[in-house]
Fold each of these.
Amino acid sequence: MPVRRSVRRPPRRPAGRRAPRVLTAAALCAALGAGAPAVAATAAPAGAVQQPAGAEPLSAGRPAPRTAPPAAGPAASSARPAASAASDDAGKAVSYRGHTFTVPADWPVVDLTAHPTACVRFDRHAVYLGDPGEQQDCPARVVGRTEALWLRPATATKAAVTENPTAREFRATAPADGIAVTAPYGADRATAERVLRSAGLPVAAARTEPPAATPAAPALPADATAHQGKGFDTCTAPGQSAMDAWKTASPYSAVGVYIGGVNRGCAQPNLTAEWVRTQYTAGWRFVPLYVGPQPAAGAGSCASDCAAVTDPVPQGRAAAEDAVAQAGTLGFGKGSVLYNDLEQYTPGTALTARVLGYLEAWTARLHELGYRSGAYGSVSSLVADLVAHAAGTTLPDVIHFARWNDEATLTDPVLPAALWADHQRVHQYAGDRAETYGGVRISIDRDLLDVGTGA
């Protein structure tokens, strides 16, 4: 991780001093794509947005590291500014609904009122202001987490802070005009604490979130995670109009949703128990994905900033407990399959032992809690390791194997016919595809499912 500069509250700006300069989204994307530093040369027009971007290529046969430039939509002509910012070399003060936070000076600020399609993602430093629109323009997948800040309107009567240490995330509320705060962090927890403390939030008194911070929703029927047919997964749960359009016009009838984990990169403003039940009633079925610790900091889609497996058994059990808590708040009850997303890695003695120990602990704890275990990984890493050690480890109940060969089949040369043979397979056969159905464009990975209820 890069070394974080210390932050302090910036001094009052003298009258007449020039306001911070902000790049337009297009200019900043171009600069970062060329490797240039994110420094503006001129003052930004009203409604401009600071936002980093990057793109990485596909890899034939297996998932490659995947990021995509988060597009900013057209500025709303009637939107009033949601925040103001002032900066110096040490930090930048960002004010939102009467609350002022001091963040590192190089963190871009994204106004979601002006740019409602911008992707709220936590794999890069940024401040997000407001609620995004119904449909964010996100890549198919974002893996990894670092320090960021998301501020949005909320009804709050007091200042309070909670922390989910398994997911590495603070949540807070503040009164007055009322805001909800999400502050994820990677290796630099201290920066997240300082940012929250700068706004007077009681970080020192932060409570650890209970296993289920939100009460469990009524459980969906047992077939919610069972399906035979095509599906897709995408970084953030699509809005309702998008789901309706795709249900009518697309070949897909299952959707992968990222329910949690320390390396889940996209925010999930649409993903609620009501959203899940509405999709289930419409005929959709689900692939709940949990992005926990990865085989290595630079595994697969990680850009060397993923939390990694270092203590396999405790981390595997903690991930399972957190996944069950998150699944329960969405209505995925006992008997559901929960998939642990493990990105591409180079198999070897140390990594293989860590991954298998972690996944075995995940599976054992899920079974204790009444859930079925799923695992996502590449045929050249996780799947190969599981097959090679099948006699000596507890296998997940369902395998979600990635081979990007554009073949919607459930067989693979790496998979013996006798393993995961009873409606226990999902094949991710293509990735990073932007597809349009019913006039709605979404970046997705393509899947073929044959998953039973396990009864």
Note: The first helix runs from residue 25 to 33.
Amino acid sequence: MRGGPVGAIWRGGLRRISRWPGRRLPTATPEAGAAFGGWRRLFRNRSGAPLVVLASACAVGLAAGACVFAVHNIVIWLQRASLGFAAEMRVAVPEHTAPWRVGAALLAGALLVSLATWATSRLSDRPPSDAVEANALRGGYLTWMDGFAVVIPILASVSFGASVGVEAAVTQVGAVLASVLGRRLKLPRSDLRLLVGAGAAAAISAAYQAPIAGMLYAFELVLGSYNKRSLAPVALAALLGFGAVAALDGGPKPFIIRQTASALWADFPVAALIGVLAALLGIGVMVLVGGVERSLASLTRSETVRRVLGALGLAALAFLAPGVLGSGHAAIDEAVNGEIVGRLAIGLLGAKALASALSLGAGFRGGLFSASLFIGALLGQAVAWLSQLIPYVPVANPTLCALVGMAALGACIIGSPLAMAFLVLESTGNYEASLVVALGTVVSSLVTDRLFGYSFATWRFQQRGLALEGGHDISRLTTVGISELVRPAKFILPASASLDQVARAVSHAGNKAVAVQDDHGRLLGLVDPALVEVVENEPDLPLAAADLIGTPVVRVPPTATLADVVAIFGQDDRGVLPIVDPKRPDRLLGAIRSRDVFRLSASIAEQQRREDLGLVGRQ
């Protein structure tokens, strides 16, 4: 500013003021300088988030809370218009609603979802990304089209009776608002990812009036990690999202507990049992979604026809169990308070699980967030009812079992155990059951990881070929090539080379590759040094170079990214991979060593960590 026109005007003004009678410029003192420096350090803390990020998080939190309120009311209005009643607010179908109207609404929803999916696919050249995928693969980059392509089909599904939740839509709204605002402000990559997490936290906080759960959801799923720098923006967004909904709605907690749920020592084994059952049930629901999807795909290639078939199946289920329609918020409240118990709870549990799997497998859009809470509450009520039938077993508290079931099944399907535990406690306002709920959640998460290894979101990513386990930023590895790491093979041996020749070549090659070719110069693979070390003490074995190739033979094109190579090396302990010509896979171009790959990936990860902590590019 000193050399510019603004600086000149500023200095001239100070000189004129200094000439006024009785006017003297204040003289800087050490005490004043120290005080000013303290304020400057306060607002330029190296380890904290910049003020622009904090202010943006506040704005996103308020906007996300208002959008959650709007989406909730839009869904209720559309359900009343299509179904004749608000499925979000009641379990039973009113007498004035004819069964044909429910079926017609579901069919209309199927057609609208197909139309919305077709329209958004024509307007965008790539599939839409959600908050987790955007943070993991695209540095938090989301567009308005990502929002429309996700939110509109979900609203069309839920508003016309499909058995899915609307939480994926409101989370997408918060994340897109955050990403668009962050890009308009030209925030750096780490701050943009942080703001997307704050938007998702605000949406979950507003949807369930659970700010702590919203924060933990962002840390566990959307951001993939926690650090001190990310706490303030995420917390502010979650609190303001909660405040916005409370100011607009002013209603009580989403689920009101009308019975006591104090925990006793005898409840801890029951909570652990519910955790195991919830994990098994959650895995079954996730697998059932894939089974329904494959079955319908085998019947027809048309996605619209699949949705129509799914709508007909949902209509039949709704005729038997109306509680399967919509996300099931009202049913959760009744299940927690013991209004759905015994055989009714078991029957509705099976119907809701089948309806949710049928909805998602047929192609309706939405998530299993609300469904996992509802099914979990029914599971808890079923366990409490069965405990009354088994002699010499203490009778379990039904409300307590329902709370444990909600958190445990949510931890299994959503993949965010801490967030689901706090969501149950906050949304019900019952903290006396915290230890028992925590135990059931931990057991469910542990069993799910051991038996299945995925939540519903990460499992769907795997089915699409995306090796994502959350919002960890792996996009940097996907943008780094491997050309600088490729080295020529140290030795190239014929397939008939003896064991002694192979052993000498491996010894002289060190960490470099020893390739094996056939008589026509075509690559067969690379020698496995570990295999040579095992057999070289048996010189009489009739082995040749072709017998000592590492299996399975993996051929990497030079266009592969660092992420691709890290994934290959992570599958086994091989030390070198061959780089081949994409047009002639039997032509060796060079080799790449695992030590070089992991050194570079560790360097990139450290650079990313420093940026996330605010230690790079800050004064």
Note: The chain has three domains: 51-248, 267-463, 477-606.
Amino acid sequence: MAGTDKPKAKPQKPAKVTAARIAKMMAEGAAMIRNMTPEERDMIIAKSMSEESASNADEAAEAKEDANESEWAQCEGELFAAKFRSFWNKYYTDCGATFEQTTSIPAMCHTYPASDCSTKAMDTLQIMSVKVTSIKDGLGLDWPLEVFGIVAARDVLDHKRNIIFHRPRTDCQIITQDDCYLALTGPTRAIAVSVDPSYIEVSLKVKGTTEAEDTDLSDLVLMYRTGCCPGSVFPSRLSTLEIEFRHINRSVEATVHIKVIGGSWPDGFHGEFCAGISSSDDLQVKLLDFEDGGLPVNADGEIKLSRRVVSVGVESNLKVSVRARPINKDHAAESSEAVLKCQRAGTSPSGIKLSVGSCNMEVSVAWSCFRRAW
């Protein structure tokens, strides 16, 4: 009847797979092959052999590539570095980040958290130092070295580069066999650690007379996570790198500021500022190390620290210290320190002082927990 809807067809149930049905399908396939012409059978066989050959060739090429890389790589970190960019792009470009992008999360991000912002303490990685312990003989490298490149961490907070060391080719750091530590300037915020993998990325070069003569010094990517952190010594084809770091359980981020409030730095003295967990001298981070050129300060008296961010366990205290070392051995070294109780947010109480000679300084610390971006 016109205008009457046709009854809907009932959905077909999938055929039940039984031994009899499988036998029938095999028989039908065999019959199909018997009914083919010799030319059709030859064409199918040739196509099958071609596909198998191509698959075997791809597997062989991949195995050869892995073997070649394993032959020159001196450690797993160097082998991973060769594939890291494509690996990272595969998993993280969909999150809206690019490979060379630096972290968009600043220090002190949650010093004053909003009421609806849920933050927490996290495990963190505290990097104290990075140094080139040796270079390989006979490969064109000789001390001193003009080093440029990058050392950065990537963690679960945003997977972008958190810069620890960065020098362009136009502003190399000269390191010697006796003074082989890199001048670190980061991290820019604390490095979070979780059960999900995060990475330390190293890409260092030695400047040549021309760019074409620049030489790789160290290319590494080190994976770390809770319960599984890498070692500290990393050999590569041309050098050996040593990274001194510690895993800090249930920690918060401390951002240190030091300001001169009176007097001046004593003449003829080098200076060193450090900060870290008060119970361990091994966990002290060098914030500034300067020679007899005078204490670097801005117009407001704020000391221009090379590094500001350290990690502190929630049950620990933070020690901030200064040491003045005399150039003339007839003079004695001077030092001063302050200990602050860890906080989860806010800033430290005012009136925390350091003093060396007539130079009086005030310490302030901004505390922050963490919030995962995605």
Note: Helices lie at 19-35, 38-72, 76-92.
